[in-house]
Specification:
alpha/beta, Rossmann fold, six-stranded parallel β-sheet
């Protein structure tokens, strides 16, 4: 029996993408698996049955170092590879460790010079490669996301409480989908988000109910979009906790989403996904990851722009000012 510490501090999507690693470590090695992340993301892992203990930090690794030293780890799997994770490895210098290759040079070449040296390998498979020295193999089961029972949302009841008469069909007992589209309009950076006039135009093409998802910062935008589209579009941005938003995703017939955390949550629930790409590109290796034999997702992006990708993360506004990567997205109706 080994005791293994997995490190990934942020963010929502990246932590969901580590889920095959912790599952395979637990099931294939029989080890005790611990996870270190930021305090704001600890709830994502709280109900994961493959993780025995979650440690969190607010700002500094010194907050948890005494507790980590007491654990007596055999191995550290560093899936973040930044200054904080280096501090952990230096403090626990006697512990064998394996670190994820972030491909920073390859990403820099792609962003700055448009020279593509990126491997055609999903980040999940690269995460798993980090654990290969322990004999870990990809089990082909895809991503995991676990919703606490108290956060499973009765969508019809939630809609009724919002004061609208729109109804969605309750899913049959043997299915996990209801008759609405979840549209994730949020993203951490503006250059990953469609302009709201493009979202409105897309929502107007959809005949059935649409539930808009995003964080508190997206609430005002969601209200505007819903008001412009009519009663079949409902705004849930900023009104639900993360796990509740995940429940809405789990029950949707289709998820339309930017390159953001709920995209990976949708993949964990094996949902049909229409992913929308602006300043980032799927070649970075963070497109929806399905189990073997499933997928792929539908991808909407503007090909052939000389300025794209302009960043591996994103900006508050288009560096060129034209924002063609999003303004020229051609939307379709899912029916």
């Amino acid at each position: 029996m080994k005791k293994i510490l997995v490190i990934r501090f942020s963010s929502i999507g990246d932590i969901v993408l580590t889920s095959p690693v912790v599952r395979c470590l637990k099931q294939q090695s029989g080890s005790e698996v611990h996870f270190l992340t930021k305090q704001s993301f600890g709830a994502i892992l709280s109900d994961n049955p493959y993780i025995d203990k979650v440690f969190t930090i607010h700002k500094k690794v010194s907050e948890v170092l005494p507790a980590l030293r007491m654990e007596g780890y055999d191995v550290i799997i560093d899936l973040h590879r930044n200054l904080r994770s280096l501090q952990i490895k230096l403090a626990l210098f006697r512990v064998r460790h394996y670190s994820f290759d972030k491909l920073n040079l390859e990403k820099w070449l792609m962003v700055k010079l448009k020279i593509n040296q990126l491997p055609d390998v999903h980040i999940v498979d690269r995460y798993l490669k980090t654990a290969e020295p322990l004999g870990i193999k990809n089990d082909g089961k895809g991503l995991d996301y676990f919703i606490p029972p108290e956060d499973e949302l009765d969508v019809n009841n939630w809609i009724a409480s919002s004061g609208t008469d729109v109804k969605v069909l309750t899913a049959p007992a043997n299915q996990s989908s209801t008759a609405y589209t979840a549209f994730v309009i949020g993203a951490a950076h503006a250059t990953k988000r469609l302009p709201r006039e493009r979202i409105i135009a897309w929502c107007q093409q959809i005949s059935g109910p649409v539930i808009l998802l995003g964080g508190p910062d997206d609430r005002e935008n969601g209200e505007f979009i819903a008001a412009q589209c009519g009663p079949h579009v409902l705004n849930a941005c900023g009104k639900l906790r993360l796990h509740q938003s995940a429940s809405v995703v789990r029950q949707a017939r289709l998820v339309i989403t930017h390159d953001t955390g709920l995209m990976h949550v949708a993949a964990a629930f094996k949902k049909p996904i229409w992913s929308v790409w602006g300043n980032t590109i799927p070649s970075f290796g963070m497109y929806p990851y399905y189990p073997e034999g499933m997928g792929p997702d539908r991808r909407f992006e503007v090909q052939g722009l000389s300025c794209r990708p302009c960043s591996k993360i994103g900006y508050a506004e288009c560096p060129k000012g034209h924002f063609r990567c999003m303004r020229e997205i051609v939307s379709e109706s899912p029916g």
